[in-house]
Amino acid sequence: xxxxxxxxxxLFARTVGASYARAIEQRGAxxxxxxxxxxxxxxxxxxxxxVVAELPEGSAVLDVPCGGGITIAQxxxxxxxxxxxxxxxxxxxxxARRRLRPDQHDTVEFVEASIEQxxxxxxxxxxxxxxNGLHCLPDPAAAIREIARCLKPGGRLVGxxxxxxxxxxxxxxxxxxxxxxxxxxxxxxxxxxRWFTEAGLTIDELECSGAITHFAVHK
Length: 219
Fold this sequence. Notes:
Helix content is 38%, strand content 22%. The chain contains eight helices and seven strands. It is globular, with a radius of gyration of 16 Å. 43% of the residues are buried. The model has no long low-confidence stretch (mean pLDDT 91).
């Protein structure tokens, strides 16, 4: 079973996937876990998620993989945007649906699909957010190319991923997760630079905080 098939498994989604989602939702625990294992400031991830709250009216945003839906919570009450939450895991989408506030039900659209075959036309979205996802994918470069295709000219991609070669203990953890099938091959900081540039994206920010790389790029 490859990493994509594993995340599509319902039992995996209800157990490991749900635990993964809840971990990032518990900010206090996530800060400790992030500092000890990844040597990173987890608050930087939460701050980056605020980008969705800054979208002007009428914008379209793609959240992929949306996981448990933590980024959706950054939408402000009454914010008039089109928000597409996409994940390959039906279980993770169910978890995200359960977290919606009442005012978000008419704003958020849920789509079950692979990030390597995004079911939307070219130039569809003003923003894509991809938090804690690239290291879980079988082919991050292919995912970035698909995201780039779906971004409007000038559209942005903002997110982060666990990165090899930065923190030794994090590298050991990522090997364990790859061996279990939970993570894909991941990549280094240089790999990320190549993924973005080969997809035709311009890098605005690409910086490591411990073993977590934060990125902001545009088309």
